[in-house]
Every structure is written in structure tokens, then in C-alpha cells.
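Task 17 of the worksheet. Students: predict the tertiary structure of the chain below and write it out as C-alpha cells. Keep your answer in the requested format; marks are given for formatting as well as content.
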Amino acid sequence: MRILLLVCSFLFALFGLPPAKAQAPARANVSRNWSTNVVMLPTGGIAIGNPMARVQLVEWVSYTCPHCAAFAEDAKAELPAMLKSGRVRVEYRTLPRDALDLAAAILVRCGGPNRFIAAHDAIMLQQQAMLDKADAFAQTPAAQTRTATIAIRLQQLADATGLRALMRGHGLGDAQITACLNDEAAQKRVIAIAEAAQAANVAGTPSFEINGQKADVHDWATLKPLLLAAK
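Model answer:
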């Protein structure tokens, strides 16, 4: 598991700068597809599923972490069904490890709750290609030149890695993408999640919490039995 970098330290160097006990879902809502219920939380997390689910799962996730992409691939056949049924709810807390990760974490939120799932899945699916392009960009003069603002670097990375094009393919316009990357409040919102994770001793991604308790697992094969056993 790759270790989470301290976001604030990274940005300064680059730019000089337990939930309440869950209840069973109401019987009347058994047939509802809860996997389409996406909420942007005031804390910056994104929750998918039944708010009254018996199992409240938190995933700390990074968009440049290969283990997170592997988890997303392994879980995609079964986790959505758990969310759909209303038994499990997942809250994603994005932990940026670097500037590209910060750009991705901002842009998955840019289109609002209705576009989050598709944007999240698309980035995970294209992660390796995005990282390869990031490595190539890192060798260019533009990457090695200090930028005046964080937003300029985020836009450079979004352009160079195909992240901007990927988000355009999921309904975001260029002006909207640029506005989101320039949004200082959006930047601070994502960074605040990382600071809270640091305070809670979350050291890497993916990391998980089940019903308010940290789970010492980092892959779907070991997480799945815990979700099935949780009450």
C-alpha cells in the first residue's frame, strides 16, 4: 500500500504556499435502487446509498493510487448490488497524494452528485494511462517551472494527462472544468479531508471504516466478509 503524502506539505513545497447507530432501511423502500442516491456532504465526502443502511462504509481513496484502482476493479461486480439493496452505504473521502490527485478529486465533484459515480469510475479505469502521461509531463520544462498559483498547475496537469478530456466525455464543459480547478474553496475542501484523515491517523489508501470502526483491510477480498458480517 502506497503511503499517503501530506497534502499541505506538498503544496507548500510546490507553490510556496463515529456516526449514529445505523438502522435498518424502511420496509417500504426495499424495492428502491439506493445506488442512485448520491449526496455531497458538508464535510466534503460523497455518500452513495441508503442513509439508514445497516452498514456504513467509509473509503479513503486516492485517484493516483494503483491499489485504489485495483480495489475499484475488484469491487465493481458486487459492491454496487450491496448499495442498490440499501444494506450498505459508502462514503468516499478523497485523499490527494499530489497535484494531479488534487485535480481529479476536485473534478469528480465538479458536475455535482449526478455525475460523480461515472466520473469516479472513469478516472479509476483510466488511471494507468493518466499516470503514464503525468510521468511524461514531469520531464517537460513546463512541469519543472514554478507556477504562480495552484490552479495553473492543476490546469496544466488536467490538460497533459487527459483528465480534462476525460471529464469532457462525462458532461463537463471546458469553462466549467477551468472554473472548478480555479475554485479556491473547492481546493480547500478537498485538502481539509486530508487534514482530517491525518489527524485520525489514516496513513494510506485505500483505507476503510465500517460503522465507525477502522478496518485493517485494504482490498475487496478481505473487506467483503466484514461487510456481510456487519450488523
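Marker's comment: Confidence is low (pLDDT under 50) at residues 1-28. The longest helix spans residues 184-199.
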